[in-house]
Specification:
721 residues; alpha+beta; Helix Hairpins; D-amino Acid Aminotransferase, Chain A, domain 1; OB fold (Dihydrolipoamide Acetyltransferase, E2P); seven-stranded antiparallel beta sheet; 37% helix; globular
Length: 721
């Protein structure tokens, strides 16, 4: 069914929200709730809509960048060459189309393709300089990852020094995995200790690499398989198939098998052969990776915004089994989302017994007509969280009734008993009680995150235990914690206690004190106001001196009034002039706009959301509590100048490459504090490009467009001026 641009824009926003949520669960929390196939279906729908409506494509769309971000606990480091993700397919026809496409792009050429196992592990990048291991990092967002060098050093198969004639520089890519037997043994030990079990080897590997103590990592049965290179100096390699022998010669572990194919028939034969032997490998595999062999051909094929055109991942069908659905229970997530879960007759799937499976949301239950008592088909795609994929209606009991989500809930949260409502935009029920115990840990973690108030050590298990022990019931309680309370905090169990300790407590208290003085933008973001992300928080902080001004903002009221009175030209004109004079709006350049059309810093939806938040009982309580605590977040503006008068007002910057002495986040903060804006892509509207070492394609495009490019030294001079 055809849809118009307005409908497409709404659906695109839904898909972006859903995909970002699943990216966070997969990359950052190692706790995915849907199969790879379900994720790929959402992703493909988004790509199709953005292709159909190119004007709706945004630089921050999940289709334009790799998912995932560095963890709070680790130092961030840059990859010398970006780590891009691959497009996925489950269809042999799409494999044929892939090969036909690259042949069209390189006509009259022989194109060899390497087929190798797709290891289901954690992507990492290691840097060896003159043969010595210098750095190891996770994929992160593709450009910047977590520095896990100490943890990688605990993996016995990773050499500290390379053998033979090592190249001057070698950036090598691979997957860290946990072998099957080691995984089972680890879960047995965790069960004895009363600890949560890992869902699968990949999650166990990801959880291990996130440990801050390398001694813990050393006890985990981790391995690594290397399959490619990033930056490399001191050795010439022209073919990908030569990389395996090079890495093996240097003492780096590589995959047991790979194939070189010169036709689509040979490619499919290799995929089938791999499927027959992959279960014998020590690590899990969920597919085959196809890569053009010749590097020179790869360069000419190039990249899309997110993926190389010269590679694709083919995923095998997941194992499916039938079992009976005994009940449906509702769980409350940390963000308040209510998720239905199927309680099943235990059944063996992909080597493990499954008793529960996700049902995603109310619409999914209705669409598949899932009822208690049904015989259902369970899929454990990628051997992660099982899901109900179909109902065997021929085996349905006569008395099975449709599941009524609303009737089951009786309008109340199953955890706190407060009111729930259905969010029409994201097809999900949500507990509206921000004080619901199920959500407290998540709010504390968000509040203390690096991009928010950067409260060191208060996250993950620490946040869980603070809430569990009753020391924190809401984020602002952190400011009343005593060092003695934190030092005695038990992060383990009664049988196996593990206290936080005085040293860690002292660091946390210092960070909490420092958070009191952080600027307004950080506080606005940390409060988790609906529709207020980092960029919006920064924009609001530019135009308001303190949090009370934001709470009672005349500018935000004017935005709402303007949109309400647009049909009354004189009233709208007066409001528009007032907003433009304040620097909170500018004249619209769109021909479709009327004579007095303006574009405001934030839209009416954000303005309403902010005013509603601070007018609510929760918002009023936060303002009152801040006063009681003596915390007065103020704008980071150097003066009370309007944003339009700041020295970089109206200027757009793009950052590329690795800066010598500051992170991209630090550079962005400096630009935004002076009224500038940072964009993720270069266009004719870009004023400056700040380039560091190893700049990407943005650098080349800026040169083509004649945009001024400067390095960090010139940038600092500009800031000084």
């Amino acid at each position: 069914m055809a849809i118009d641009e307005k409908q497409a824009a709404k659906r695109i926003e839904q898909l972006r929200h859903e995909i970002r949520r699943h990216d966070r669960l997969y990359y950052d929390e190692a706790a995915p709730i849907i199969s790879d196939r379900e994720y790929d279906r959402l992703y493909k729908e988004l790509i199709d809509l953005e292709t159909q409506f190119p004007d709706l494509v945004r630089p921050d769309s999940p289709t334009q960048r790799v998912g995932g971000k560095p963890l709070q606990a680790f130092e961030q480091v840059s990859h010398l060459i970006p780590m891009l993700s691959l497009d996925n397919t489950y269809s042999e026809d799409e494999v044929k189309n892939f090969y036909a496409r690259i042949r069209r792009l390189l006509p009259n050429e022989k194109i060899a393709v390497v087929i190798e196992p797709k290891v289901d592990g954690v992507a990492v990048s290691l840097i060896y300089q003159s043969g010595k291991l210098r750095q190891a990092a996770t994929r992160g967002d593709g450009n910047v990852g977590d520095n896990i060098t100490q943890n990688i050093r605990t993996i016995r198969s990773v050499p500290e020094r390379l053998r033979d004639m090592a190249p001057k520089l070698l950036e090598v890519r691979g997957e860290v995995y946990m072998d099957r037997q080691g995984f089972e043994k680890l879960n047995e030990e965790r069960k004895k200790q009363g600890l949560p079990l890992f869902a699968n080897p990949r999650n166990a590997a990801a959880g291990s690499l996130k440990q801050l103590d390398p001694k813990i990592v050393a006890k985990r049965p981790l391995g690594v398989v290397f399959y490619g290179t990033g930056a490399i100096e001191g050795v010439d390699v022209d073919l990908h198939s030569e990389v395996f022998s090079l890495l093996k010669k240097l003492g780096l572990p590589v995959t047991e098998r790979w194939w070189v194919a010169k036709s689509v028939e040979e490619i499919l034969d290799a995929i089938h052969e791999l499927d027959g032997i992959r279960h014998k490998f020590a690590y899990q595999t969920d597919g085959a990776v196809l890569k053009v062999d010749a590097f020179e051909q790869r360069e000419r094929l190039g990249f899309t915004a997110k993926s190389p055109r010269w590679a694709i991942a083919y995923k095998y069908e997941a194992e499916r089994v039938e079992t009976r659905l005994l009940n449906i229970v509702i769980q409350v997530g940390r963000t308040g989302i209510l998720t239905p879960v199927a309680v099943l007759e235990p059944v063996l799937v992909s080597g493990s017994t499954v008793g529960r499976a996700t049902l995603h949301n109310e619409d999914e239950i209705k669409r598949k007509d899932i009822r208690i008592g049904d015989t259902v088909v369970i899929e454990k795609a990628g051997e992660v969280i099982p899901a109900v994929v179909a109902v065997v209606k021929s085996k349905r009991p006569r008395d099975a009734k449709p599941f009524d989500f609303s009737e089951h809930l009786h309008g109340k949260c199953p955890v706190c008993g407060e009111r729930v409502r259905r969010d029409p935009q994201f097809v999900a029920w949500r507990c509206e009680n921000i004080q619901c115990p199920a959500q407290t840990t998540r709010r504390v973690e968000f509040f203390a995150a690096r991009g928010a108030l950067d409260i060191e050590s208060v996250g993950g298990i620490v946040a869980d235990k603070l809430v569990e022990r009753g020391l924190v019931r809401e984020p602002l309680d952190l400011f009343e914690l005593k060092s003695e309370q934190l030092a005695k905090l038990n992060l383990g169990t009664q049988d196996a206690p593990r206290v936080f300790g005085e040293k860690n407590a002292k660091k946390a208290i210092q960070a909490i004190k420092r958070a009191r003085t952080l600027p307004l933008s950080r506080w606005l973001f940390a409060l988790a106001i609906p529709d207020v992300g980092k960029t919006t928080a920064t924009q609001l902080a530019r135009f308001h001196d303190n949090i009370d001004e934001v709470a009672h903002s005349q500018l935000l009221r004017d935005v709402l009034d303007y949109h309400e009175k647009r049909e009354h030209k004189q009233d709208a004109k007066e409001i528009a002039e007032r907003l433009i004079k304040a620097g909170f709006a500018k004249q619209s350049k769109s021909k479709a706009e009327k004579k007095h059309g303006i574009v405001t810093e934030v839209g009416p939806a954000v303005a309403q959301s902010v005013l509603d938040f601070f007018a609510s009982a929760i918002g009023r309580k936060i303002l009152q509590r801040l006063k009681q605590l003596g915390i007065t977040p103020k704008s980071e503006r150097a003066s009370v100048k309007k944003a339009a008068e700041l020295p970089l007002a109206g200027k757009t910057f793009v950052l590329t490459g690795v800066l010598p002495s500051m992170t991209r986040e630090e550079a962005t903060q400096k630009i935004e504090a002076l009224g500038g804006r940072v964009s993720s892509s270069v266009s004719k509207k870009t004023d400056y490009v700040l380039a560091g070492a190893q700049p990407g394609s943005k650098f080349d495009k800026a040169k083509q467009l004649g945009i001024r490019i400067f390095d960090e030294a010139e940038f600092r001079k500009m800031l000084a001026r």
